[in-house]
Amino acid sequence: MVRQGNIDNPPKTPLVPGFECCGIVESVAENTQGFEIGDRVMAFMNYNAWAEVVCTPVDFVYKMPDDMTFTEAAAFSLNFVAAYMMLFEVASLQEGMSVLVHSAGGAVGQAVAQLCSTVPNVTVFGIASCFKHTSIKDSVTHLFDRNADYIQEVKKISPDGVDIVLDCLCGENTGKSLSLLKPLGTYILYGASNMVTGETKSFFSFAKSWWQVEKVNPIKLYEENKVIAGFSLLNLLFKQGGCNLVKSAMDKLLSLYEQKKIRPVVDSLWALEEVKEAMQRIHDRGNIGKLILDVEKSPTPLMANDSTETSEAGEEEEEPEGDNDSKERMPFIH
């Protein structure tokens, strides 16, 4: 979406993309506390993360656990913080609730599934492209094809609907998702990947996606006791001063990681020179989990489970119709 300019106030080119990274501290500013040269860290960036050397304020930097690899660290921050804050800060996930997550095979979707497993008796309904089902079926309670009538399938299992819906697609999925909410249920929009359909920005795709969004009637919301929310971690961090909120979430997430309750899902590793091919894999909706740019990797594909070491990545988007079985795929990391 950044590449195509499908965001508010897109940055001017030339531009170095990327919002998260990990590595080793090379230098610190005067009076900086808590970090030393040589520390292994992961960090948020307001762009510029796809580089060999980056600079970012100390408030956006976190020490890596001793047993966390660079590959895991590069895939950890954005996905898990976004998933955690949506589930626990916005939607107040509790024991016995149900969650429907679109793009369940993407990096955030997999983080959501893992975090739901830390709460007793949470039912997770996952929506994903059919060819990803074999790889992700064990991470959710129920799994449905995104091109099928998943609304009716969900209602067969849970006639009253679900407590939480997490939607990164927008468009026609918004109305469908709202119809599934129980009273006091929460719908959270955290992306609009249906707007990305071609190689370049498309006004038609943008307009179609916007037109398909069901117009929300505030009176109907009040009568049906439903909650609609939006969530942007990047805006919270870089525009709204949410560093302390994010730090609190990160502390809890690192504790869960050290307890071996969560682990980032990595799709594949790529050299910086292969960024075009890596971006194409995201664009083709072929990834399960995160794609990693590894500054130490030489070009040519490297399967993710062939390496234990290292930064930015992608989220699954709408699956185009057609035969997906012919797509090249890389192994899911268990």
Automatic annotation (TrEMBL):
Keyword Metal-binding included in the entry's annotation = no
Q: Where is the composition biased (Acidic residues)?
A: 312-323
**Biased composition, class Basic and acidic residues, residue ranges:** 324-334
One Pfam family here: ADH_N
Which SUPFAM superfamilies does the UniProt record give? GroES-like (SSF50129), NAD(P)-binding Rossmann-fold domains (SSF51735)
Chain spans, region Disordered = 299-334
Keyword Oxidoreductase present in the record's keywords: the answer is yes
Q: Cite the SMART domains for this sequence.
A: PKS_ER (SM00829)
Q: Name one GO molecular function term.
A: oxidoreductase activity
> Where's the Enoyl reductase (ER) domain?
5-293
What keywords were assigned to this record?
Oxidoreductase
Q: What is this protein called?
A: Vesicle amine transport 1-like
Organism annotation: Poecilia reticulata (Guppy)
